[in-house]
């Protein structure tokens, strides 16, 4: 394959384009029609006309031969299928296809070309998003998406801006939102079970939607055309359908009563239809594209994009990349600010080096909460304790608002202090200024919700009891904290939920009304009683507190720490962070990061008023 490539004179502005020749044999005449192409070099400065292809590389062990400049070249089966469907019967079509137009054996060229891929896709006449060959009734799904998209756009789904979608459930006196809600609700009632068709679910769960690279490819494009088999659909129409389906299904789920759910006649059908819920992954792409095109608000930052693509949720896995390093590089082109951070694609780096450089750059930019993304489950075993493994599933931090577009912080543990990095020559070590608060004395039983069992009543009882016992003991012991009885009584219900309550627009500090929900969920027979909305809210917050365990400290603090925390671990506040962290001394003066923490009584800057010395904390 090397013979078809010549060195690009300027790989930052010069690209190769693939011209696909008309079919020599139709698909009906041959199962394996010959794909004949010409590869040439052009300058982007000359504004060449081309169509960019967005697709999945697929299984690298199987390939098909195409002919480029007279040479047989193996390409992936999915790419060959895409070219076969895109090829015109009677004219040439010029494409940009990453697997062919970039010399994948040349790391320097690949790094340079990847750094301008946002430009390549944005300058294309349009982008073809190849979902794959027709299967699982995909023709029906494409037709349904077309109908639903057209109708929902007419109803106003794409007229929603900024926080409109979050406020749509309760528009209040907003006449515009009320009018849109009325139209959408009317169409939702009309469409009803069509929205739960299995073909829609199958199309939304195609491998294509799991790729990190498609975020950039579809977001920067002027125009996007979805293609599945021989069916095509404008992305704008798909966006309307995707957003509307999400809204309508949520609306339907909220209208189902517990009695209907358990009814022997209605129940099975309702449960089956809700179980067919499509993947939320396409909606993530739709949202990012609409914000980037400034249809719904400001563009997403690199940090926000990482949140959207790396976090694991019950209804959506994080996006994937064939090369784990592309979990980072696939997003850089969407935020010009990454250049100022000194982040560029470099395929001579290992994933370990790329992840470390990215984390350090984001911390220097003030995003120190990213340390909470470094969690115990890692695919790359030799990563420094403070570096997240972007190739593995990252669970949303318990102390950070999980709504990616929200800038509202739940806590303010470090007050007005900003991130302060201590220079050092070891790239595996990061030095940060902060204060050491206390040492963990006792720990309670782990609280570990799972997808299979998001809320375990027996586990919750142990969790509540441990916290109540810690609060009672520390209050009776006469801690250095204030001995306000009301505060410690409130601690028994505020600490289990990390002093949070859920809202449609994210999470916020718990209000006194949550106390009633706590008492309700604590009842011995709670699992058999129809839950109130407040109780469901409380349980939902507990489900989001992944891998936690309660603790009490030597000086009398009670809180929540990572499930693998133990006696002797240290509570600290790192300047600039919204919440405290747990660290563990590894060698004299150096620490391993254990994870984020909730410490009752110091979540709003109180820890800075304790008179403790500022420390230089080196994480390894």
From TrEMBL:
Pfam families, A to Z: HET (PF06985), Het-6_barrel (PF26639)
The record ties this protein, via InterPro entries, to: HET, HetReg/Transcr_Mod
Residue ranges occupied by any Heterokaryon incompatibility domain in the UniProt entry: 50-217
Name of protein: Heterokaryon incompatibility domain-containing protein
Upper lineage: Eukaryota, Fungi, Dikarya, Ascomycota, Pezizomycotina
